[in-house]
Amino acid sequence: MLMMAAKLRKWRNMSTRIDLMLRSDATPSEERETANQRRGGGVLYRDILRATRFYTWTDSRGVLWRDVLRENARKEFEAARFETDPEVITRLLIGGSDAVSSALDRLAEKQREMIEKRNRGDQP
């Protein structure tokens, strides 16, 4: 299964490069920029997967927040999959990175508060 996923990923990267080469107005710098942005998207997606492992509680439907957040991230990535404007892609990557950072900051703050309450004896 992993081998198939790796081959599919390789094919997608190759098809994107071929599409750029076929465009008459594509420059080598645009090709590099697109490749870098694809890598940035992969890095961001892995960061999201790593960050969501800390969300171990359930929502009102009984579904783990980790799964809800991962599903939403996948939907957003799929919605932006065919975006070609480098400025829009960069804006999406920066916004996503900021969202992950702020979510982890809020999570850490809540955990600190919970530890302080427990140490004071407010909560068993």
Structure notes:
The protein is 77% helix and 0% strand. The protein has a domain of 83 residues. The protein is mainly alpha-helical and 124 residues long. The chain is elongated, with a radius of gyration of 19 Å. The chain contains four helices and no strands.
Key phrases:
single chain, 124 residues, mainly alpha, elongated, Complex1_LYR_LYRM7
Helix coverage percent of residues?
over 70%
Percentage of β-strand residues: under 5%
Shape: elongated
Query: What value does the Rg take, in angstroms?
Result: 19 Å
Mean pLDDT, all residues: 78
Characterize the biggest β-sheet: none
Number of helices: 4
Structural class: mainly alpha
Distance between the termini: 45 Å
Would you report the number of β strands? 0
Low-confidence parts: none
Order of helices and strands: HHHH
InterPro entries: Complex1_LYR_dom (IPR008011), Complex1_LYR_LYRM7 (IPR045298)
GO biological process, one term: mitochondrial respiratory chain complex III assembly
Domain Complex 1 LYR protein: 44-97
GO cellular component, one term: mitochondrion
